[in-house]
Design a protein that fits this description.
The complex is a heterodimer of chains A (235) and B (492). Chain A has 235 residues and is an alpha/beta fold. Chain A has a single domain, classed as Rossmann fold (3-Layer(aba) Sandwich), CATH 3.40.50.300. Helices cover 33% and strands 26% of the residues of chain A. Chain A has a 6-stranded mixed beta sheet, with helices on both faces. In chain A, strands 2-1-4-5 form a 4-stranded antiparallel beta sheet, with helices on one face. In chain A, a hairpin with a 2-residue loop joins strand 9 and strand 10. In chain A, helix 2 crosses helix 3. With 492 residues, chain B is an all-alpha fold. Chain B has 2 domains: 217 residues, no CATH class; 236 residues, no CATH class. Helices cover 72% and strands 0% of the residues of chain B. Chain B contains 21 helices and no strands. In chain B, helix 11 crosses helix 12 and helix 14 runs parallel beside helix 17. The two termini of chain B are 24 Å apart. The chains are: A alpha/beta (235), B mainly alpha (492). At the A-B interface, strand 6 and helix 2 of A face helix 11, helix 15 and helix 21 of B.
């Protein structure tokens, strides 16, 4: 589904990302972990063609993202609050995204209705603009907006941060279902090792822009990751 | 502490992402300032001999005193539109061990060193020197000059008081216009003769220097009021935080008639109506529409035919100028979202184009009553409107592709009353002057009808080639996509 080859990104000669090869098959739930500055957001930004690669390229469904825009219809993302339109209400925002993705109001309503629990009554029908919602509620709206229009690839940067525990648990269920039942490729980055190991079938560890670990999640993964990040790993 | 504040500002200026661009504008403003300084200097030097020559019987000083009222009024209005209270991002400072009063005092005192306060000095001081040279008593002249300088400062602080009150209102420039217009009207119809009162006041100060206490007291009062107002606004829940208003959603289904650009059109309309900064561009429209009256009631202007085009382009294009020049920066806070969505850039731009073209059309129709001043005026306005739709809309969209400055719609910086300054008006130069120049040249070579026709033809050509031109403009935008995303992601 997503193939990365010889990808690198440099800022003023500083290499911030260098991935020789990374293939993410369709329907995989994929987790990206790493410390601050490891290159997680850089990778997602390259994937969404928000920045230009220094070398190499990424292909989604054989569409090279920096050459063609044909990846946009089946790719959705929520990176940060710059993906929200502050002066719209959540409903208007969902409809706007829906219209761009060829969904009518009824489609959007039906989809959003599934997330009543997730919203916890704090998003819909509040008569508030997105800019006036709390950070956590903004995030909820952004994540759900990324699910509109049956995308095949969903990219979520740090989706668990800023969410309350209840919502974190609900979000994990949502992500798992997407990958298992609907064959959606979900890419998630996180600082929280427990959450990623819970949700993702595969976890890649980035360090200074390079892949240092590529793990199939199993019972021992969390321990291994904890050992890695605490620096007590036995080589 | 002041040194710290100054160094913070120094850094925010030189380290800002839009530094290069701002520098260019600063240089332009620099030249403009030099020009203004020269004008004022000449006025200061030349005023005394000129008045002496025109009115040999009266004392030039008394004449100047009797006109001070108009200066105060004019200065107040000009400052309201162009001078902003120096903004400082105070949020991070609030929790540091700095007294709130210190921050407020700093901001207020800094405003004293504004160009608007320095400019009158270039006229006042030479005039004062001439007075002394002409044999007026030195100490009395000095007292008079000092009083004027104090008045300059009073205007300075009075302006901020007015701005802070109007910032809350939707029609932000209405209070100042009502105030200035009211005072002017009262004076004009001799109900209250302010120019006499102020003139007499200054005569009194000139004769008895002790009266200078009065302006000093007024200045002090203005400062204290400002201080209180600003200090109130320094709490998170008052000035720094935007108030949460309940949403009033309106039905925008009529936009569906515009086909595939409908979602963007709806978004743009909401953008304009729901943000303070964009809303003010709508109110500017009223101002622009009535602008022609200033010209046409004056027979001298009415005889200057090329000025019809100026008024025509301005009054039908005021929304185009105010809104268009910040495309795509209006959408800067969610530009990343737009760029990852399944949308055609061309649709996005076409929505902006449609909005601007519609505004020109509506403003032209609303401006039809100008026919009162003659058919020629209406015909020139029609030519200007067509030129606006065909040429200026494209020019301004093209200009937008060079836009690299983020606009923070959810403005929370304290003390930022208006969000616009002198810079906003710069774009008007090519947009207004070019059609006027074309018209003037053809008009003097051939005649009125041909000149109007030339503008109409230019406009029609623009409309005919609209799709081709839009393709070109779209390409410009896509070419600078990464640069825009990067610039819009930075907070100045």
């Amino acid at each position: 589904m997503i193939t990365t080859s010889n990808l690198s990104k440099k800022y003023n000669g500083n290499q911030v990302l260098s991935i020789d090869a990374l293939d993410i098959p369709k329907g995989q739930s994929f987790g990206l972990v790493g410390n601050n500055g490891a290159g997680k957001t850089t990778y997602f930004s390259l994937l969404l063609d928000l920045i230009q690669p220094t070398t190499g390229h990424i292909k989604i469904n054989d569409v090279q993202v920096d050459k063609s825009e044909d990846w946009k219809p089946f790719t959705a993302a929520f990176i940060d609050e710059t993906f929200l339109i502050g002066y719209l209400t959540p409903e208007e925002y969902f409809y706007f995204i829906g219209e761009l993705r060829g969904q009518n109001k009824a489609d959007v309503d039906a989809l959003v209705a599934q997330f009543k629990d997730f919203f916890h009554g704090e998003i819909l029908g509040q008569k508030k603009y997105l800019r006036d919602l709390s950070k956590g509620n903004q995030k909820k709206a952004g994540i759900v907006a990324a699910l509109i229009g049956n995308p095949e690839v969903i990219i979520l940067d740090e989706p668990f941060a800023n969410l309350d525990p209840t919502t974190q648990i609900r979000l994990k269920t949502i992500i798992k279902e997407l990958a298992e039942k609907q064959g959606v490729t979900v890419l998630v980055s996180s600082h929280d090792l427990l959450h990623v190991t819970d949700v993702c079938e595969r976890i890649v560890v980035l360090e200074k822009g390079e892949i240092v670990k590529d793990l199939e999640t199993n019972a021992a993964t969390l321990k291994e990751l904890e050992a890695h990040f605490s620096g007590s790993e036995v080589l | 502490m002041i040194k710290r504040f100054l160094s913070l500002e120094w850094k925010s200026f030189f380290r800002s992402a839009s530094f290069g661009k701002t520098l260019g504008i600063k240089i332009f403003m620099g030249f403009l300032s030099l020009y203004l300084i020269a004008v004022f200097l000449m006025m200061g030097i030349g005023l005394f001999p000129a008045l002496k020559k025109l009115f040999p019987d009266s004392d030039p000083l008394l004449i100047v005193n009797s006109f001070l009222f108009y200066w105060v009024l004019g200065d107040l209005v000009i400052r309201f539109f162009f001078q902003k209270l120096p903004v400082m991002s105070v949020m991070p400072l609030l929790i540091l061990p700095i007294k709130r009063s210190k921050i407020v005092n700093y901001v207020l005192r800094k405003s004293v060193f504004s160009f608007f306060n320095a400019l009158p000095l270039f006229a006042i001081i030479p005039f004062g020197v001439t007075l002394i040279v002409e044999g007026y008593p030195v100490s009395q002249v000095l007292g008079w000059v000092l009083a004027l300088i104090i008045v300059v400062l009073i205007i300075n602080f009075l302006n901020f008081i007015i701005e802070s009150f109007s910032a809350e209102r939707e029609l932000s420039f209405l209070p100042i216009l009502v105030l200035a217009g009211g005072l002017y009207g009262l004076n004009y119809f001799n109900l209250v003769s302010f120019n006499e009162i102020i003139g007499n006041g200054f005569n009194a100060i000139y004769n008895q220097s002790l009266f200078i206490c009065v302006p000093i007291l007024i200045l002090f009062a203005c400062y204290v009021i400002n201080f209180k107002l600003l200090k109130q606004n320094l709490f998170l829940d008052s000035g720094l935080k935007t108030k949460i208003k309940e949403v009033s959603a309106s039905n925008l289904d009529w936009t569906k008639n515009f086909g595939d650009i409908a979602p963007f059109l709806q978004l743009d309309l909401k953008l304009i109506w729901r943000n303070k900064r964009t809303k003010s561009t709508v109110w500017m429209v009223v101002f622009g529409l009535l602008y022609g009256l200033v010209f046409y009631v004056n027979p001298q202007f009415l005889s200057m035919t090329p000025s019809y085009i100026f008024v025509g382009v301005f009054s039908s294009g005021i929304f185009l100028m105010n809104f268009g020049q910040f495309v795509p920066a209006w959408d800067s806070s969610y530009y990343g979202l737009l760029m990852t969505q399944n949308l055609k850039y061309e649709q996005y731009l076409k929505s902006k184009f449609t909005l601007m073209a519609l505004s020109v059309l509506i403003l032209f129709v609303l401006g039809i009553p100008y026919v009162y001043f003659g058919w020629k005026v209406l015909f020139a306005h029609l030519a200007a409107a067509i030129y606006n739709i065909g040429v200026n809309t494209h020019v301004i969209l093209l200009g937008g592709s060079f836009n690299r400055k983020k606009i923070n719609l959810n403005e929370k910086a304290a003390f930022n009353y208006q969000g616009t300054g002198a810079v906003q008006w710069l774009i008007g130069i090519p947009i207004l002057l070019l059609p006027m120049a074309i018209f003037a040249v053809v008009y003097f070579l051939t005649g009125f009808e041909i000149a109007c026709l030339v503008l109409i033809i230019l406009g029609v050509v623009g409309i005919v080639f609209h799709h081709k031109i839009m393709k070109l403009i779209t390409k410009k935008y896509t070419d600078s996509k990464y640069k825009m995303i990067d610039a819009f992601n930075q907070d100045n």
